[in-house]
Each structure stands twice: as structure tokens, then as C-alpha cells.
Amino acid sequence: MSQTTDLFASAALGPLTLPNRLVMAPLTRNRAQADGTPTPLMATYYAQRASAGLIIAEAATPNAVGQTYPDITAIHTPRHVAGWRRVTDAVRDAGGRMFLQLQHGGRVGHPATSGLTPVAPSPVPLPGTIFTPGGHRPAVTPREMTAEDIRVTVADFARAARRALDAGFEGVEVHSANGHLLHQFLAANTNRRTDGYGGSLTARIRFTAEVAEAVAAEIGAERVGLRVSPGNTVNGIAEGETEEIYPALVERLGGLGLAYLHLVFADPDAPVFHRIRAGWPGTLVANPVLQEMSGPAIEEASARLLDAGADLIALGRPFLANPDLVTRLRLGAPLNQVRERYLMYVGGATGYTDYPALGDGAAQPSSASSVALDGPRVA
Question: DSSP assignment of 241-289, as one string?
């Protein structure tokens, strides 16, 4: 549990010593090659942000059927490993440390993107449309995972974690949040199974727990984080029993010795936050809800979470727009604002590697006339 409210104090995380308590949250930016291989531009992007205490790299799929959107990263072939190695080398040369987030989209996917029918705990389609290489298309009904599918997917996560270490990452974050596959198993509206993976709370948390346990067994628990988003309704999720799901998950995994638990949109006033903090014996990473993009807003939200027991603070959009965010916060300097038009699906350096550091030029104003192509899914 946190013993300081100083964002710039060092912190231990498994075998690592972080120079500060600011974590760059995973941010899907769709700048990979079509097959999921990271690009040299991505190496530049992450190296620019190496002053973060820890970078959690954007979601990488552990297998082909787990792909969500076009041009997202993957970590299931040697080519992916080689591409990520260029990224981790660049970040390490700049003094940084990286974990890789492992994400399977489940029903958040489309045959037009992956060439495969998505799989999910139950055949319940994603509401509305999903972005594909041909634009937005109606979501398809996923295939219900068999017991063998579940076993293979758990093994795929473990293999992906091993590949991540081969690619130079210090560890991995298992993604069980934001309406993707593991979260779909947790949620009542997407998990209608009647076998050992559905129905009761114990059964609904089983898949997430088994993935975390398998990954920890493969690379060591001290190199594994887990990301959850209690009560988050993104991607059509309705959990049911939120106040009970996460304490039960914490109870099952609390003795495993994981590097951290990462809470998305953490609310220090929410009872579930305090139940999780009381039950989780290790490092808690908290991602605050920010009312505005400014240093004072970040400092206020961070202080509240650190006071409530968080150990590290994960920020998404502030790091996206400010490669030198740590320096700006230390100095009280103004922050670049996010240019919404260039978040996702657009490719290239614009809105990606061209945000200025202090001394490069004036902070860039927000483009109020720009429309986010998929803003809610970035962070």
C-alpha cells in the first residue's frame, strides 16, 4: 500500500525500481502493420515517452482470432517478436521500462478484419457496428467457446507472455477490462454459460483467474499485472454484481504474488475501490477519471487516489499528447491537448509522434472542430 503521495518518488514493482509513480497506460493507436507487427514509428513514439515510471504498451493479441480492429499489434509470431524488440530496445536506450498488455477481443472483432469468426463466452453479439478495414460494419454473432477453445486460449496467453519477454519487455499486463474477452466472461449479459465458466461468481471469474495463473506460471508472477474496469459498460457490457465480482477475483488471485492490479477509471469514493484495496495485498495501479487535461487536474486526481491507497497512477491521454509529461508536471508547465482527429485508424506520424516536448514549440491547442473517430476506446 502506498506510503507517499509524491508522484515523483521512486517505487518498487516486482524486480524493478521505477523512478516515479507515473505509468503510461496502454493506448491503442492503430499504427502497426496489417499483420500486427510494430513499426519503426512506434519505436519513436514509445521512446519519446520513456521518462514514465513504467510504460504499459498497447494491447497485443495472443492469437489471430483475438484481433479487434485493423492495424493493432500482436505477439504470436516471430515477426511480431522482432518488431516489438525494436520498440523495447529504443525505450531501454532512452532509459525506460515496458510491460506489454495482452488482449483478446472476444466478440469485439470481425471476419473482415481477422478473417475469422470471433469467439466469446456465449453467442451474444456486440451491439451496433465495429470498425473494419472497409469502415464500420454490423457486428457478427460470435461463436461460443468450447472447453477446448478455453484451454487453447489460456495456453495462447501464456505463450504470448513468453514471447513478450523474448521481445525485451519486463513483464505483461493481462487485459480483463473494457468489454474484451476476459471481461465478457466476468459479465452476466455476455456470459450465459451453464458450465464451469458461467453462472455463479466463482465460475464467471474462473477464466480470468486461469489466464492470470497460467501467465504467472510461465514467466513469474512478479512480471505479471492484471487490468480490470469494475462497472465499465464500454462495448455493451453489463456486469451485474460488480460489488461482488472483483472482491472475489482479488481473493482468488491475491496470494499469487502478481506485480500489480490495474484499475481503470478508478474512483476513490466508490465502495468497490475500497473493497479491492483492502483485499489486494500488492501494488495497486489506479487510472483516474480526469475532468480536464491540465497539470492541476492530474495532480488533484492523483493525490486523491494515492491518499486512498493507490501506489501508482496510470495516465492515458496526458501521455498521448505529452511525450515529456513527467517533466511538464514537475515544472507546472502547460500541457499539449489531444488532437482528436488523429487518435485511431488514421496511421502516420501526425497526432502520434509530432506532439512537441518543452522547447520544441508552443503547447498545441485542442481542435474543438475535430471529431474523434473512436475516442472512448483510447485509454
Answer: -HHHHHHHHHHHHGGG--SEEEEEEE-TTSHHHHHHHHH--SEEEEEEP
